[in-house]
Amino acid sequence: MADMTLTLEQRKLQELVREFTAKHIIPVASEWDEKGEFHEFILEEVKKIGLNCMAVPTEYGGPGYDSVSQSVVMEQFGYGCCAFATTLGGNGLSSYPLAIAGTDEQKKLYYGRLVAGGMGGFALTEPGAGSDAGACSTTAKLDGDEWVLNGTKCFATTCGVASIMVVFASTDPSKGVKGLSAFIVEKEREGFSVGAVEHKMGIRSSNTVELLLKNVRIPKNHLLGNEGEGMKIAMKTLDMARPIVASMAVGVAQRALDAAVAFAKEYLDVNGKPIGLNQAVGFKLADMAIQVEAARQLVRNALHMKEAGVPYTKEAAIAKTFATDTAMHVSADAVGLMGNHGYSKDSFVEKLMRDAKVTQIYEGTNQVQRMVIAGQLLR
Amino acid sequence: MSYALTEEQQLIQQSAREFTQEYIEPIASVIDHTSIHPSAVVQLMAEHDFLGLYLPEEFGGASAGYLSYVLIIEEISRVSGAVASILINHASLAAYSVNRFGTAAQKQAYLSALCSGEKLGAFALTEPGAAPGAGVHKVVAAKEGDNYVLNGHKCYIPNGGVADVYVVFALTSPEAGVKGMSAFIVDGNTAGLTVSRTIGKMGLRGCQSAELIFENVIVSNRNLLGAEGAGMKIAQQAQLAANVAEGAQAIGIAQAAMDDAVRYGKQRIQFGRPIAAFPAIQTMLAEMATNIYIARLAVYDAASLIERGEPFMKEAAMVKLFTGRVGQSALIDVIQIEGGYGYSQEMIASRFYRDIKGAVINESSVEFPEKVIAKDLLA
């Protein structure tokens, strides 16, 4: 069915990605999940259709997709495999700080690597600084013409395989949040190394690592924006990323709904009738569909506001919270409805339920989203 | 817990806690990682009279009552949902059916061995693609002289392949559909009964699930459990009795997970204080503690009804419905509180998250609990 709130071009893109997902992602997603391996091969394929770095503007050699188009793509990738979508989403997210605060020279460097097929990373979280990003203990000190970075980052998405990344460090620890700054770090910098790889319950083929920074020296001009602007850049980045995470979550939820519907049509009850004909089951499916559709439209609304250039922080947080809660509940309902089959590896809905949980946690937990929403309401 | 547990019940609870801490907790995550049936643990449970705890002394049980039995299930579930499932399938489904519906001779032949732990039981009801007796793989029992000949497939059978005795549901009058279903006691080593595969699951790994093939399996008419056509009633009664044990399993898992979240919440510092100091986290903890408290009372009450031989169908279905809802919601919140740490594969919270889903979906396939409750209300 045509998605009438999209432009013709966006619908074409949606169709392209739907086919790509069906051909390249869905057949192998369970195997990646089982092995917990990063899916490099598919990245090559994605590059071929020009979707590896969607957010890079055309003047820097990227496709420069508008945010609704990016959302449409990410929903389809989320439908295919949330871990893969997380990798591409993280890639896009890592480039947002450049759009927010990058100089022309910095953009050329950063976008150049992405356009060439390299992956980008975003390293904000630390063992002691999760929701409280201001508690950052990684430091950056100016030494002549270079910044010297020291510290440890954790739960860094894609950073074990990234070519370039944005790393947050404190340039003035006495100032807390206001001492946080953002830097561009290339993986080949001396003193940069990847520590432990995180083994997760879900999105298992997404690469999550610890980053070790030991006297990593980078040029002075790798500072994004000004000293102390790190928190501002991080927050704006997350504003931009929230509807994208929400889009992936809508994809996960849609997949769970589709699986539950297919099951309800096929699985026969004790009387030999498809269980979908049971009103209780039908209503459950309807409730799931209501949530999925509402989530999708909340995401679109936030993005239309963004494209129109009006403040959308609250709407982005609302969309992220609702869509990821929807992914969680709809995937759990799908497993429940499909019973022993859904709970087993014979079906992929158990993977959806493991994957969905992380969407409520990353890119700002849904508690942080509520802090943002409440802050907007009460100011 | 001030529910009026007798001194004996409190002693059983205490010794079960010591047992699980000594013998199960140290290997619980290994059982999960390897998915291997923990036969040594089952042997130890037999030595401690767990396998026949509530079953009559006359047949080698401990006659300790169903409430004592669910106390043990709750304790085991606090460390391993998988081991609890092994015991539930043995005691609440297989042994329950034989004890409730078997003849004196059948009990002599099978219940004694099930109580002593000489034999492990399984309950073979579920079939692939359809409710029992409704699909193309249905198991049919054709009468031939003094025997029945069973043919067909069973799927997702817990303890499948490791059990010695199966309570098997098969159609003796296929034309009558589910009304023509009967129950049989089948020895695991009967010719023609084979395990075609074991099935990977999201959680409860270590409670082996298998697909069983019946190919001209000859079963003596002495092993028909109850009358011909009584299969559905037997299945439903046993499943409802198991629902109460699964309720105990769900609250055991939820309690242990909540304890873990409390521990984490007290030590995790964000924004200068333990996250447990934030009202948002306290609200989540208070909600789950309230739910667990109320659910536990309902589980104990329903178990008491079973113990006293009173009608328990409605209450068991209510336990299933409520513990399913609150158990699921507790684990979604526990991982939320623990964030990226709880989501890690190495953390027990992520195992509990995968396990509780199995505890709340199992055995709900024949009849929805809502239907059982409504039927009782509308009778």
Tell me the layout of helices and strands:
The complex is a heterodimer of chains A (379) and B (379).
Chain A (H helix, E strand, L loop, with lengths): L7 H28 L4 H9 L18 H14 L1 H20 L2 H12 L4 E4 L15 E5 L2 E12 L6 E7 L9 E7 L5 E6 L10 E12 L3 E2 L5 H37 L12 H30 L4 H31 L5 H11 L6 H13 L1
Parallel strand pairs in A: 1-4
Antiparallel strand pairs in A: 2-3, 3-7, 4-5, 5-8, 6-7
Helix pairs in contact in A: 1-3, 3-4, 3-6, 4-5, 4-6, 6-7, 6-8, 6-9, 7-8, 8-9, 8-10
Chain B lengths: L6 H18 L3 H7 L4 H9 L18 H14 L1 H21 L2 H13 L4 E4 L15 E5 L2 E12 L6 E7 L9 E7 L5 E6 L10 E12 L3 E2 L5 H37 L1 E2 L2 E2 L4 H29 L5 H31 L4 H14 L7 H10 L1
Parallel strand pairs in B: 1-4
Antiparallel strand pairs in B: 2-3, 3-7, 4-5, 5-8, 6-7, 9-10
Can you offer a commentary on this structure?
- The complex is a heterodimer of chains A (379) and B (379).
- By secondary structure, chain A is an alpha+beta fold.
- Helix content of chain A is 54%, strand content 15%.
- Chain A is built from ten helices and eight strands.
- In chain A, strand 2 and strand 3 form a beta hairpin.
- Chain B is an alpha+beta fold.
- In chain B, a hairpin with a 2-residue loop joins strand 2 and strand 3.
- In chain B, helix 5 packs antiparallel against helix 6, helix 5 runs antiparallel to helix 7 and helix 7 packs antiparallel against helix 8.
- At the A-B interface, helix 8, helix 9 and helix 10 of A face strand 9, helix 9 and helix 10 of B.
